[in-house]
Input
Amino acid sequence: MKKASEYRQHAEECRILAKQVPDGVQRDQLLEMAKTWDALAEDRDRLAQNHPELKVPNNNNGTESTT
Output
């Protein structure tokens, strides 16, 4: 399962792309995708808080992280 930080990174990528396209349907879709990724990140954080066994270990030091 992905970490919330990965979902937030996807959201940021959508926002960056949205800045590069003119106003219109494509921009609106990218901004909507960013909102969806942000909502998924929030859901992932809540899920990990309620179910600690779902926390993802960090690669560096073995500690657990949701972000």
